[in-house]
Amino acid sequence: MKPLERKGYESLSFLEDDRPVVEISQSEAKAIGDLPNQPLSDIPVESVSTIRGQVRIKSAQYEGNAQWAFLWNGRAISAEMIDSAVEWVAAFQQNDIYAPPNSVLDVTMVETVELDPDGMVIGRPSYKVVEVHGVAPPPKQIPLF
After folding, report:
1. Taking the complete model, does pTM exceed 0.70, yes or no?
2. If I label 78, which of 14, 58, 102, 140 is the partner at 20 to 30 A Cα–Cα?
3. Is residue 107 packed enough to be buried (19+ CB in 10 Å), middle (13-18) or exposed (0-12)?
4. What is the SS3 assignment for 39?
5. Mean of the per-residue pLDDT values of the chain
6. How far apart are CA 108 and CA 62, in angstroms?
7. What is the pLDDT of residues 61-96, one digit of tens each?
8. Run of H or E including 92
9. Which domains, ranges and CATH numbers included, belong to the chain?
10. 36 by DSSP, 3-state: which?
11. Confidence at residue 110, expressed as pLDDT on a 0 to 100 scale
12. Are 107 and 55 in contact (CB under 8 A)?
């Protein structure tokens, strides 16, 4: 917006394929410039998202509370089971729930990623499953003979 502070400039346009996508006038640029700057202390250091989706069990934990390995969106992730998911894990470990490897769990999970000072993602996201809504065991193959 700095060019609009100089004499002779009336507007600033951003083009895509020689067509204006956004056009900002001098008065709009002044109004934007008058907005308060965000103090550096208010810039978030992490981004937290709650996701409802399906994960496929890659490796379950049959004892204890170690992280589980899942496939989600075509990639392997590790996730801690917390909150009400802990109750589901306890029932699973007591053989009250049938969920062999490759079962699909319908879950609510929290994805947390660390951000740099510019708000860009750094590092790998971490996952915590907070609730298991249901389980779909893998299909069984029927012998042909």
Report:
1. no
2. 140
3. buried
4. coil
5. 89
6. 21
7. 989 888 999 999 999 999 999 999 999 999 999 999
8. helix 85-93
9. 2-35 (no CATH), 42-136 (2.40.50)
10. coil
11. 97
12. yes
